[in-house]
Design goal:
The structure holds two protein chains of two kinds.
Chain A (H helix, E strand, L loop, with lengths): L1 E5 L5 E5 L2 E2 L6 H11 L7 E5 L5 H9 L4 E6 L4 H8 L7 E5 L3 H5 L2 H8 L3 E4 L8 H11 L4 H10 L17 H10 L4 H14 L1
Parallel strand pairs in A: 4-5, 4-7, 5-6
Antiparallel strand pairs in A: 1-2, 2-3
Chain B lengths: L1 E6 L3 H6 L1 H10 L4 E7 L15 E5 L1 H9 L7 H15 L4 E4 L4 H8 L5 E3 L2 E3 L2 E3 L4 H10 L9 H8 L18 E5 L11 H14 L4 E6 L4 H5 L7 E3 L2 H8 L4 E4 L3 H9 L3 E5 L5 H4 L6 E5 L19 H5 L2 H12 L6 E2 L1 H13 L13 E2 L1 H20 L3 H6 L3 H18 L8 H8 L5 H28 L6 H8 L13 H5 L2 H5 L1
Parallel strand pairs in B: 1-2, 1-4, 2-3, 4-5, 8-9, 8-11, 9-10, 11-12, 12-13, 14-15
Antiparallel strand pairs in B: 6-7
Classes of the chains: A alpha/beta, B alpha/beta.
Chain lengths: 201, 509
Amino acid sequence: MISFSENHESALISYEDGQALASLRDPQGEALKWVYSLGILPTKHIVVVGLGAGFHIAALADVDPELRITVVESRESLISVFRSQFSDIENRVEVVIAHSAQELLGSLAFEEIQDNRCFVVSFRECWAAQANLFTEYFAHLTGRTLESVQYHLAEMEINLKALFLDNNKTLSVKDILPIIEASALEEREKQNFRILGELVN
Amino acid sequence: MKILVVSLLRLGDLIQQIPLIEGIQYQYPDAEIDILINKQFSHAQSLLAGRVSRVIHFDREALQKGLGEANYNIMWSHGKLKTLLADLSASNYDQVYNFTHTKLSAFLIGGIVAKKKIGLSHAQGRFQGLENPWLRYFNDQFSGQGPSLFHYVEILGKAFDLPVQKPNSLAAMPRKKRILLQCLTSDSKKNWGLDKFLGLKNEIENSLVDFKVQILGAPFERETLLEVFSEKDLLIADLAEVRALLKEFDLLVTGDTSIKHLAAQVGLPIVEIVLGASDLSKTGAFQKDSVAITAKLPCAPCVHSKPCSQSSHLCADTITVGRVFEAVWEMLSREASAVIADRDFDRMVFEKHFDRGETRTRLNLTAKLSAETIAQTVELHKMAARIERALPAPKRLTAATSLTAEMGELILCAQDILKSGQDEAGYFRSFIESLIQKYTNPLQIHTRVTKALAEVRELLRIRDELTMQLGQKISMEGEYYAKGIGQLSISGFEETREGLQRDYEDADL
């Protein structure tokens, strides 16, 4: 159950089943520290898993005004407080609600995130009871699950037989290489993957 | 004409490749030359000024991060790489040279659209370019475990038919009475130790009183050097400034560093202290006036990426200040030797073989071969004769019930060659390789060994020919007779069981 409470600085802190989704004492400081820990971001479109109280999203938006942010969340009721508390970044932050992995995989946002090869970050302090679900989301969003690999291979017109890969593990490029080699993909495209294979060796 | 050079090795290699780039410039004076280098060495770009039109970066670290870190999309690196390959292809290069000779570079060149690809590349599902004997030597010998007769730059120059010039030595110039010590390397296993360098500095200044010794270091090394040396002894300079400074000295004493390769390019004589993972035959300076001091230990050279396996830094401890000083003294008072070194003679033989009888190296007819070189020739002939005798006839191989029995003597020959250490140059390399390749039919072994033996015979023929040109004679007949090899009739083997099993076809071989 989601609830909200003001801290000593009148900032609204969200809770899930009584667990605070941000630091009560210094939510801004905690968020800023998190943003700095990310280092230089490699893409201009960033995906954050978990909206929570939203301070980390505001800090992220503040650090780079050019950044486009998509937040993936399952707790819809967090949105209204986030929008009212951080109205100045409303146009820069898209919040995608997915109640299950299947819903996420079927969404247009998922396709766009994959197509843009977005950098995905997580603010685990706000995950609370959603930790398992968000871990699954994270793997899907980074393209490292069987379903998302299938999506990328379909882009290259390769129809992957699901049994080929272990659907319980997070995948890497190394797992894809044998599929690419066995495919009818153009030789030059295969070279691209062979280079990647050498880089992970 | 537009040319791309792919150079994806380390900083020292990039510096070493400058004579090759100059070779391309010489051959195609109007060409626009671009170079693809690892982004981490972008600070060395200034060294390429005037030689290349554009330096393109290969961001290996970012690509590896994208592949290894969980936050990146699994296809992020793929996208980056695709963009790079598309940009390179869009440049419409007439020629792409592979100076790197790795699988990675071969795949990368395979992914670029260009009119001509020179060196190792990958196309149609296999590696291309290894039909060139020099590249094959690079692949089998230089990149393998054994020592190489040729420097990396020489092999690539020969393989790509580029005129590669060794710089004129500064040794012939008037003495400046200044010696430079480069004490630190990029790998602690390659460091001799600052205390020892201090000892060397004192030894030189005490013995050669009019010589001044200075300590070279990069700006980030200053603090470390000041722990042992005084500020007035230091010469702190970045890579771009060093090149000009090197010409102001008579000699450089260094470990395996990029500075060593820069010194080689300006012709500065070098004393190299070879430690840790440094492999002299592969990363030595490309110049005549250099001497290397090595620690002959079973663990040397060690593996680059692994820590030292010994309880102390044994290779550094073995090399004393006195030994390095002797080398410094030798370099400063050096005269050209009238004896051709074993290695140089082997180089002439292989060069003539790879270049199909032609060689650019001029034979110095006033020089002589050492007695050891002549004895080595005799040993090589003996080995070849033994192999020829041990090779079973094709019909015996096809009829054999046990291949081990038929091939046993050949395998023993190969083992003896490896154990004897007499063939560091690799005269019998193709023979040994012919025995370890997979086969589906015993006759395949015969064909491969016969082909390898033809190569061995050709190498020995060239060796004999060069010996004759030098006016020296190999008295093999006497040697053979004394040992009972080659000149005996077939009945000479009748005393042993093996001799009885052999037939005349066998003996003909």
